């Protein structure tokens, strides 16, 4: 696994990306279960899936970065 990358496609919306490389001997059902688990527990969604000529799967998943607006409190004097 690599460190997640952050990228802004449009103002106010940021995505966090994560890339996985799985070898060719990993079954298709395992990959499906793995991606479902990522989606259910971490909020990730599939962004890109490339299967190379050698059978290696390169998977890129993404999730939205939701930023909270900082509250400013005014204290009366």
Quickly describe the structure.
With 77 residues, the chain is α+β, with helices and mostly antiparallel strands. It is built from 1 helix and 4 strands.
The largest β sheet comes out as: 4 strands, antiparallel
Order of helices and strands: EEHEE
Whole-number mean pLDDT: 85
Subunit arrangement of the protein: single chain
Distance between the termini: 53 Å
Major sheet: order of its strands? 1-2-4-3
- Measured as a percent range, the helix fraction is 10-25%
CATH topology: the name is Defensin A-like
Architecture (CATH level 2) name: 2-Layer Sandwich
Strand content: 35-45%
Structural class: alpha+beta
CATH class: Alpha Beta
- Structurally, the number of domains stands at 1
Radius of gyration: 18 Å
What's the tally of helices? 1
Shape annotation: elongated
For the secondary structure, the number of strands is: 4
Low-confidence stretches: none
Task: Give the secondary structure arrangement, pairings included.
Elements: E1 5-10, E2 13-22, H1 28-42, E3 45-51, E4 57-65
Antiparallel strand pairs: 1-2, 2-4, 3-4
Protein name: DUF4177 domain-containing protein
Pfam family, one: DUF5703
Organism: Nocardioides jejuensis
Explain what you see:
- By secondary structure, this protein is of the alpha+beta class.
- It has a single domain, classed as 2-Layer Sandwich (Defensin A-like), CATH 3.30.30.
- Helices cover 19% and strands 42% of the residues.
- It has a four-stranded antiparallel beta sheet, with helices on one face.
- A hairpin with a 2-residue loop joins strand 1 (5-10) and strand 2.
- The radius of gyration is 18 Å and the shape is elongated.
- The model has no long low-confidence stretch (mean pLDDT 85).
- This is DUF4177 domain-containing protein.
- It comes from Nocardioides jejuensis.
- Pfam families: DUF5703.
């Amino acid at each position: 696994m690599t460190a997640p990358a952050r990228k802004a496609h449009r103002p106010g919306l940021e995505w966090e990306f994560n890339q996985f490389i799985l070898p060719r001997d990993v079954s298709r059902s395992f990959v499906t279960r793995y991606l479902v688990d990522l989606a259910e527990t971490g909020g990730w969604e599939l962004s890109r899936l490339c299967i190379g000529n050698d059978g290696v799967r390169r998977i890129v998943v993404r999730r939205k970065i939701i930023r909270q607006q900082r509250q400013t409190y005014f204290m009366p004097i």
